[in-house]
Design a protein that fits this description.
The complex is a heterodimer of chains A (657) and B (255). Helices cover 53% and strands 5% of the residues of chain A. Chain A has 657 residues and is mostly helical. In chain A, helix 21 links the parallel strand 4 and strand 5. Chain B has a nine-stranded mixed beta sheet with strand order 9-8-7-10-6-1-4-5-11, with helices on both faces. A two-stranded antiparallel sheet of chain B has the order 2-3. The structure holds iron/sulfur cluster (2 copies).
Chain lengths: 657, 255
């Protein structure tokens, strides 16, 4: 019967092998923990306290999902398989070692078929590991993608983890070459290699000596890797899972936290490390430098100075190496880096270890705003918003000017009961180029017999982007004004065409008597499903659809707009970057109010080129008023007038009615 | 350490459509929305910049009209030390002579080294406020200033002339300066700072003697520009347009 032999081939003349193996490993683990403690204790020594110990079951679930199964890592095929092959194999090797320890000291069970399954599994993962490591070597030495940190720390890590596995494999194969058990072939990888040793014709003694050498080497390489783990790039194997475990649970992605306060109730405007929470500092140490955030970042790809990866790494640098620059906003992290962010959420969405970039960017922006460090255009917009409730600097009495002359007159929800309160939003209300579309929306609502009204001058900018600019006080003021107007209205649900207003109304406004907030695409989708909205025409266009960040990534609405488009008889051809991978138009997070700065290619232009490359697609459908503006401009600047026309989804609905 | 006084006023916000009162002699003030005079805003910025650079104190004085408190709290958030509103009957609008008397009377109590004000305002009917205040206080006045440096007992000012010429001149203090533009554009103050000031800062009220309108003007008639006759667009193809043109010329007696 197959039997496991403890410490095969290790001479006992040095004393019990257990003793020095455990001694070495214990020492290595102790050094590692000490080093890690030194590193990690900075989080709570420097950072502000914040409790993240609640809902342990959900946290544990996240740990399993993101750190063990690694669903986010697997979102990208090549690096996903590569990383999973390496990480999962190591999990199995750990488990294997743990089981062997149990067998050796507590409960003998590794014999017979159990042992064969055990050996077979370990060897299978050895092969899996080697495939992953091979992919990693190829990527690091041949492919060298831009997003990757090609630092020697990572190369060292890759070599070490590979050497450890090869050490294990060689030890096993040398033992097999001497023992040659009849079940040896179940150790697939080891057996193949053993046959090589056998074919060299080396004597048993030679092979046993080799085995001893490799075994010692294996032991030492594991110890060395452990010791260097907290100071090297493998650190993420500890901090990554911790970051997933402690990730934000209490608010959806679409809700920012208000500015933190000191014990005395004074607001904290974060300018330095000690103004951030320990979790924000952990973010910095958890970064694996995979560069996925940077790859997805519209600001980075446009050539602005912002890279979310570098942003997170500068937090790490400031914490550990940059004692001379404890100030973040404006120093370790330049102002233009902070202002370049569109808050599109792609970085947060892609990050395999759930780093929360946007929270920290906005925290630092809040400091810039309180210090008055805003550019002239943004200042004008904010001043207008404070004074008139809109960024256009127009009188609030003109808010509903677009509806002038409509018959029947659009109801005033502050005066009459309505079923749907239409929150129109700034762009749809004031932008002269959008008047037609806003009118069409009203006409569609009227034609399908929707009982709706607007708040006329009672409506103010909803504040989504004001908050993301970092003007928290102005955001609060706008919320107060809107809540006051809304409390005077009698309605069942809120509908809006603007994903930005939608996001903040839905996720950040105080619960509004439980009235649901709907995006118009959701509402139309519901009306189609219930048979209340029927189309008389099939349009037959071939179109593509752009997911607005605040509708898609932030609120997970991908299907409703697509179903509405299909109901109008159009065929949707997806762009390569669609749904949760959709590229931002570049307007969010207050970018639409700021000076553009120097850039290579606007995100909106990159997006239009992407759409124009689709065969036979004639229309670029959007579901956000700002998108109409952004993309109509982009179509002109890239000269794509011949290939695509930008249309709001409502235009299709209007045409197909 | 200069004692700087900024005298500022609220003026009609042109974002709203202006309406004429029933008598046809002025703006209908019921419909007016007021905003800080943009030049005064620059004067405040210049005052704060001087204080930050040279030390001293900034006092802001404004007549009591709608929105004046918010404006004063905003200047407090920018760094003004004292905010004073002139208690009086200003809602109906007063001419600059009367206003300048009130300003002069209050500013004098603060023994200013320097009085800054906007060089002009959109509702100045009887000349700007600055020179009048200077006259009543017997101080020198220079207008169209875009930069101020303080020295012992005097100020060096930059004055902009049309055509891009820039003059640098020296004036003995105390003096009144009409600010065209501050050295920096007016800064942004976050709403939370203004709200904080509303809780902590205090606006003093200054009693003033009876308003003295003498020397000012009184408007006989104020009216919106009367629409000129509309241009007529001639439509149609070339033939039709030509025929139409000929008939118009004939009508006018040109042919
Ligand atoms: S939110 Fe978007 S723009 Fe901002 S850093 Fe992340 S990916 Fe870049
Ligand atoms: S922040 Fe996240 S996505 Fe970006 S490089 Fe670091 S680990 Fe990767």
């Amino acid at each position: 019967m197959p039997e496991r032999i403890n410490y095969w081939g290790i001479p006992h003349s040095w004393g019990e092998p257990e003793l020095y193996v455990y001694a070495i490993m214990f020492l290595a683990a102790a050094i590692m923990l000490l080093q890690f403690y030194r590193q990690a204790s900075l989080w709570w020594k420097v950072g502000r306290p914040e409790s993240r110990w609640d809902k342990l079951h959900i946290r544990l679930g996240r740990l399993i999902q993101y750190a063990i199964v690694q669903t986010k890592v697997l979102r990208q095929r090549y690096p996903g398989i590569m990383h999973a092959a390496i990480a999962w194999s190591y999990f199995v090797f750990f488990l294997g070692t743990a089981l062997a320890t149990v067998h050796d000291h507590f409960f003998e069970f590794l014999h017979g078929n159990t042992l064969i399954v055990y050996k077979f599994t370990l060897d299978l993962f050895t092969i899996f590991f080697l495939i992953g490591a091979g992919m990693a070597f190829y990527r690091r030495y041949a492919e060298k993608p831009e997003k990757l940190t090609l630092d020697k720390g990572f190369t060292w890590t890759l070599w070490m983890v590979t050497i450890i596995v090869l050490g294990g494999l060689f030890t096993e194969s040398l033992r097999l070459a001497v023992e040659r058990p009849d079940w040896g072939a179940w150790s697939v990888a080891g057996w193949l290699l053993a046959r090589l040793w056998i074919s060299t014709g080396a004597t048993e003694t030679t092979l046993t000596n080799w085995h001893l050498g490799v075994w010692v080497f294996h032991l030492l390489s594991v110890a060395l890797t452990l010791v260097t783990l907290p100071t090297g790039t493998l650190l993420h194997a500890l901090t990554g899972p911790l970051n997933a475990f402690f990730s934000e649970l209490d608010r959806p992605m679409g809700a920012l936290a208000p500015a933190a306060e000191t014990a005395e109730g004074e607001p904290i405007f974060a300018s330095k490390l000690s103004d951030l929470t320990w979790k924000q500092l952990l973010d910095g140490d958890a970064c694996t430098e995979c560069g996925r955030c940077q790859d997805a970042c519209p600001a980075f790809n446009a050539g602005t100075p912002l890279s979310p990866k570098q942003f997170i790494l500068s937090l790490r640098d400031s914490l550990h190496h940059n004692g001379s620059k404890p100030k973040l906003a404006g120093e370790a992290i330049p102002e233009d880096v902070l202002w370049a962010c569109t808050t599109c959420g792609a970085c947060v969405y892609e990050c395999p270890v759930l780093i929360e970039h946007i929270d920290t960017i906005v925290d630092l922006r809040r400091y810039l705003v309180i210090e008055g460090m805003v550019d002239a255009e943004l200042q004008t917009a904010l001043t207008n918003l404070g004074r008139y409730g809109n960024s256009f600097g127009k009188s609030e009495r003109m808010r509903a000017k677009w509806s002038k002359g409509m018959e029947p007159k659009v109801k005033n929800a502050n005066k009459e009961r309505v079923e749907y309160l239409w929150f129109v939003g700034d762009y749809a209300s004031y932008s002269p180029t959008l008047t037609e579309i806003t009118k069409q929306t009203a006409e569609v609502f009227q034609q399908i017999g929707l009982d709706f009204g607007i708040m006329y001058k009672g409506e103010n900018h909803a504040g989504n982007d004001v908050r993301r600019v970092g003007e928290e006080g102005l955001f609060e003021m706008l919320v107060e004004k809107n809540i006051k107007a809304m409390s005077k209205a009698d309605y069942q649900a809120i509908v809006t065409t603007d994903p930005h207003s939608y996001n903040t109304l839905k996720n950040e406004y105080p619960a509004n008597g439980g009235h649901p907030v709907l995006h118009y695409t959701e509402l139309l989708d519901q009306l189609i499903a219930s048979g209340k909205l029927k189309f008389s025409k099939k349009l037959g266009y071939k179109v593509t659809y752009h997911d607005p960040c605040y509708l898609g990534r932030y609120n997970g609405i991908y299907d409703a707009p697509r179903r509405v488009i299909e109901a109008t008889g159009c065929e949707i051809v997806e762009m390569p970057r669609n749904k949760d991978c959709a590229l931002c138009c570049g307007a969010g997070g207050g970018r639409i109010w700021m000076e553009e700065g120097e850039i290579k290619e606007r995100p909106s232009e990159s997006r239009i080129r992407e759409a124009a490359a689709l065969e036979n697609v004639t229309d670029f459908i959007v579901a956000c008023p700002k998108d109409v503006t952004m993309y109509s401009d982009a179509v002109k600047t890239v000269g794509a007038e011949e290939s695509v026309v930008v249309k709001d989804l409502i235009e299709l609905v209007y045409e197909a009615l | 350490m200069a004692n700087i006084v900024a005298i500022v006023k609220m003026v009609p916000d042109l974002v709203e459509e202006l309406e004429i009162n029933d008598e046809g002699t002025g703006l209908d003030r019921d419909w007016l929305r007021l905003i800080i005079n943009e030049f005064d805003n620059h004067a405040i910025e210049q005052a704060i910049l001087l204080k930050e650079r040279e030390g001293g104190e900034v006092t802001v004085i404004a007549p009591e009209t709608e929105g004046v408190e918010d404006m004063l709290f905003t200047t407090a958030a920018k760094g003004a030390d004292r905010m004073i509103k002139l208690a009086g009957d200003f809602e109906e609008g007063v001419n600059n002579h009367a206003l300048a008397h009130a300003f002069a009377e209050t500013a004098k109590n603060h023994q200013p080294d320097l009085i800054l004000t906007g060089v002009q305002a959109n509702d100045d009917l009887d000349g700007p406020v600055g020179p009048l205040v200077a006259e009543y206080l017997g101080m020198p006045y220079i207008g169209y200033i875009s930069g101020v440096t303080l020295e012992e007992g005097r100020a060096i000012v930059r004055k902009e002339y049309p055509g891009g010429l820039i003059g640098e001149m020296e004036v003995t203090l105390p003096a009144v300066l009409g600010i065209q533009a501050g050295e920096e554009p007016p800064r942004y103050v976050a709403i939370s700072k203004v709200r904080q000031m509303m809780k902590t800062a205090e606006i003093a009220e200054a009693e003033i003697s009876e308003l003295d309108f003498s020397g000012g003007i009184s408007a006989k008639r104020m009216y919106l520009p009367e629409a000129a006759e509309r241009a007529e667009m001639i439509e149609g193809d070339e033939e039709e347009i030509a025929a139409k043109l000929i008939s118009i010329f004939k009508e006018a007696g040109a042919l």
